[in-house]
Amino acid sequence: MAEKKPTVRMTPEECWEMLEASVNGVFTTLRSNGQPIALPVWYVVLDQKIYMVTRGKKVVRVNNDQRCSFLVEAGDRWAELRAVHVECVGRVIEPSEELSRRIGQALDEKYAPYRTARDAMPEQTRDYYDKNLNATIELTPVGKMLNWDNSKLF
């Protein structure tokens, strides 16, 4: 019997665990000229969909072209490197009251330790957040998740 070749591939369950546990994601959208732009975001995973509450050009780009991708990664040394890359269809949604509550609660639980208190923000920053409304973006994975976990080789 042939020896099984080692693999860096993660199972779908491991991919979703990493997506759920990671703090920062990299959200890539397409500019109107087709140029991709990747930005770090805070997000949550619910029911195998990725949600972010955000503002600005990301919202405009998703409305113009639903093709996007999402990446989480970890590790400093080669033997620790791991990542999950997801091709997605992105949509700006008006979530139901229930989904909105779930997203808000999940974001609060996940990011409470990382948030800056409003009174510690400069006034100009507080004003910006007060004047710029948030939109909810829902990412639905399509196709196979590209993934690797170099620690599986050891």
Describe the structure.
This protein has 4 helices and 8 strands. It is of the alpha+beta class. The mean pLDDT is 94.
Spans of at least 5 consecutive residues whose pLDDT stays below 50 are none
N/C terminus separation = 22 Å
Number of helices: 4
Total DSSP E strands: 8
Strand count, sense and barrel status of the largest sheet are: 8 strands, antiparallel
Helix content: 25-40%
Please report which band the strand proportion falls in: under 5%, 5-15%, 15-25%, 25-35%, 35-45% or over 45%.
Answer: 25-35%
How large is the radius of gyration? Answer: 18 Å
What is the H/E string? HEEEEHEEHHEE
Choose one word for the global shape.
globular
Structural class by sheet pairing and helices:
alpha+beta
Summarize this entry quickly.
The protein contains 4 helices and 8 strands; from the N terminus they run αββββαββααββ. It has 154 residues and is α+β, with helices and mostly antiparallel strands.
